[in-house]
Amino acid sequence: xxxxxxxxxxxxxxxxxxxxxxxxxxxxxxxxxxxxxxxxxxxxxxxxxxxxxxxxxxxxxxxxxxxxxxxxxxxxxxxxxxxxxxxxxxxxxxxxxxxxxxxxxxxxxxxxxxxxxxxxxxxxxxxxxxxxxxxxxxxxxxxxxxxxxxxxxxxxxxxxxxxxxxxxxxxxxxxxxxxxxxxxxxxxxxxxxxxxxxxxxxxxxxxxxxxxxxxxxxxxxxxxxxxxxxxxxxxxxxxxxxxxxxxxxxxxxxxxxxxxxxxxxxxxxxxxxxxxxxxxxxxxxxxxxxxxxxxxxxxxxxxxxxxxxxxxxxxxxxxxxxxxxxxxxxxxxxxxxxxxxxxxxxxxxxxxxxxxxxxxxxxxxxxxxxxxxxxxxxxxxxxxxxxxxxxxxxxxxxxxxxxxxxxxxxxxxxxxxxxxxxxxxxxxxxxxxxxxxxxxxxxxxxxxxxxxxxxxxxxxxxxxxxxxxxxxxxxxxxxxxxxxxxxxxxxxxxxxxxxxxxxxxxxxxxxxxxxxxxxxxxxxxxxxxxxxxxxxxxxxxxxxxxxxxxxxxxxxxxxxxxxxxxxxxxxxxxxxxxxxxxxxxxxxxxxxxxxxxxxxxxxxxxxxxxxxxxxxxxxxxxxxxxxxxxxxxxxxxxxxxxxxxxxxxxxxxxxxxxxxxxxxxxxxxxxxxxxxxxxxxxxxxxxxxxxxxxxxxx
Length: 698
Hints:
This protein is α+β, with helices and mostly antiparallel strands. It is flat and about 130 Å long.
């Protein structure tokens, strides 16, 4: 009996501890005797009368709003209508606070009349759970009723949930988008990748976007993205909230249109024109301005009336608006004065073609109010920055050129002055000559050796473009390269030089005449090409030239246009085994903070500094450049070395490599082949002499 009693006590203790650990309270209700037994109390105990005949027995502690619901559930179970009793309700604690509980119980015995005589169960404190549920319900109601769309995505940007406002704004149902990737159909995939990258780094992103509804209608939205992280800081979901701002954007557009449009023609007005022109000047973007007015328009107004004159301007606007090359660039400055802004071009061919077509279109007859009108125009043209450094100067000079065109009889175009006009014609001729030269393969490559300053041995060479025409002979690089850079033809010229240089160097390597590197210049436009690395890969693959035989020279001004982009491109080139040199160092505006980040191998000293070494200041400048290069572990090349005095100075200043007329001018491929053979013969002779001397000593 003692052993049985001990086991019973241990069992009761385990039950008590289990109930205490779970937070549940065990109750035993003897219905016939009217007693209620409680096994334990919560941390905040609920006080109940020990004897009661009430049903439910704790009705005095139950919240009045919950009492009927609890009584009905208990009565149904006591009547045998339900297999068990369960109810959630609020009960009053000893601190007079209402606490949510989950009450579960079951009849465990019946009397001889089959009436419930005993019932047991548990009482669980679920106050925190209930509050959390209420909060979640509140949030859910907010999401259901707010006017902003809400999208919840997983960490792969697939949609987990949307609210009704999403469907209202996008006209896409929940079923249409669930488990599909979040997308912005009017933007490239790169746009969303950038958003995700920003979210990973900062946790938030916001901006205005344009999107299409399922019916194709466009709308604007103000989009905000945030991340949801777990307790470890890992991203679990992305939450997007956006509102429809289409009406606001449309109002803004309408207000902008009214403020910046000409009331008669609907064209952009003078205010918008000046704003655009000022913006281009501020950004220092090359552009051209064509200003024109109608010849003898005053006579039309005076003889036929202002109403017909206004009708003529409207008809003229309609005609020119259909003219594709002036679309979006035509402005009415006032009266019969108009302007066309050509952004990002000073190309003479483009400008003159547009001016001629403009005159042709205006010369066509107009039929207005039974009148046939034939008119002409005078056009003045200015180029930025050649013809003015500010909007006022450009407008004044364009007006002057237009006035001179009118004085010469009208129905013509003129550049700002006669010298500019002649220069424009000359540039047009050079542009056409370059185009013809590229087509007929008139561009060739010359090579200038780079020599070790101490041993006098060949280390490499620089590839230099030459433009040789059958009729005009050699065209100076100073003549054609600026035009080629302006027109963009320099990209094609650069590709020709790279390909020919790689082919020739591979041939010299195969002949065992050369084992160094060839340096090829990259223009600014070439360096900015998004496919530059791939283009170089193709050339190296086609010519079978190993990448370590190629060195690319980039000017200081080129890399400083966009240092961050330049560093990225240069790293990609270095990863391919290609050497990089900064050309014309010291002539631009390099920041030392950026210079140390550029993955360079070589620094080239510009010829202007070498020429100036006769002065103390010039010599100190070269010494400074060499010191900077060596501190950055870069090789130094001095170009433009012509006399021995310069060579001796550069030796003293610890320069390693020289290039210039002291050793050789740029040579054609055939002449450079002879130069290489001479170098090889000299090397062989030097080795034989050295061996002979060594034998004599022995």
